[in-house]
């Protein structure tokens, strides 16, 4: 392997955005993801929900982050849309499902953040609860939840028995996809993390680790595995 820094792809989303003189649709991403990847010793690569994402097109990457964001289209897991579920963004859904499939084919290390964990579960055949209470205090406000981590898991090696995480979501995992293992839960039983059995590092967390630049444990773990690209 070369001495260059690992390249970590991060999914982005399309939003109406104002910058400079312009008010246009743009591919955007919360900067915290970029800063966490850089501080963990890698270089970030932003991946927009356009184009064709395959194992061949992402073969230059050393790892992947599926970022948080809006609700997944319930049709993707065979459900009718609940009135509390956000309007679908099928382009983003399709792009991130394709990114997950490609990353798993390449055995890239993957970190799914909030929506990203839900994408991982749905991509592998699982389903979601379309609404739960108590994990979304107010728009733009992150709540704090202490989670319990299962021993003998990848996540336990990174976070230990317990840790406090930042949450902002109203959906959660329901039926867990084949191959995924629940690795952490909140006090109310909400699934807070999963990992793919047999993979080098495929971890989904319901929380938002990119919100705390002082706690890089998950990003450090991702980049550490990425340095040893399969």
Task: Please characterize this protein's 3D structure.
The protein has helices at 31-39, 90-106, 115-123, 154-159, 217-226; strands spanning 7-11, 13-19, 22-28, 43-47, 63-66, 110-113, 128-129, 143-149, 162-167, 172-173, 180-185, 191-196, 202-205. It has 230 residues and is an alpha/beta fold. Helix 2 (90-106) crosses helix 3. The mean pLDDT is 95.
Rounded mean pLDDT is: 95
What's the architecture, going by CATH?
3-Layer(aba) Sandwich
The overall strand count is: 13
The secondary-structure class comes to alpha/beta
> Main sheet, how many strands, which sense, barrel?
9 strands, mixed
Q: How many domains would you count in the coordinates?
A: 1
**Rg, Cα atoms, Å:** 17 Å
Q: What is the share of helical residues?
A: 10-25%
Overall body shape? globular
Instruction: Determine the CATH superfamily.
Output: Class I glutamine amidotransferase (GATase) domain
CATH topology: Rossmann fold
Instruction: Write the H/E string, N to C.
Output: EEEHEEHEHEEHEEEEEH
Low-confidence stretches: none
Helix count, per DSSP?
Answer: 5
Kindly, what is the distance between the CA atoms of the first and last residues, rounded to a whole number of angstroms? 10 Å
Trace the largest sheet across and list its strands: 4-1-5-6-13-12-11-8-9
């Amino acid at each position: 392997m070369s001495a260059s820094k690992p390249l970590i792809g991060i999914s982005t989303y399309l939003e109406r955005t104002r910058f400079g003189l312009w008010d246009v649709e743009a591919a955007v991403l919360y900067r915290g993801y970029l800063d966490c990847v850089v501080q963990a010793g890698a270089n970030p690569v932003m991946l927009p929900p356009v184009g064709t994402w395959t194992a061949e097109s992402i073969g230059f990457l050393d790892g992947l982050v599926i970022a948080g964001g809006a609700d997944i289209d319930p049709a993707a897991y065979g459900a009718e849309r609940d009135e509390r579920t956000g309007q679908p963004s099928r382009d983003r859904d399709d792009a991130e499902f394709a990114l997950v499939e490609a990353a798993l084919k390449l055995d890239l290390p993957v970190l799914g953040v909030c929506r990203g964990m839900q994408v991982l579960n749905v991509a592998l055949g699982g389903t979601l609860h379309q609404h739960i209470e108590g994990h979304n205090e107010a728009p733009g406000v992150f709540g704090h939840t202490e989670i319990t981590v299962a021993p003998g898991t990848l996540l336990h090696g990174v976070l230990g028995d317990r840790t406090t995480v930042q949450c902002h979501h109203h959906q959660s995992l329901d039926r867990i996809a084949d191959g995924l293992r629940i690795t952490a839960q909140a006090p109310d039983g909400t699934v807070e993390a999963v990992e793919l059995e047999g993979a080098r590092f495929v971890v989904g967390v319901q929380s938002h680790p990119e919100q705390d630049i002082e706690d890089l444990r998950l990003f450090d773990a991702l980049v550490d595995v990425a340095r040893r690209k399969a």
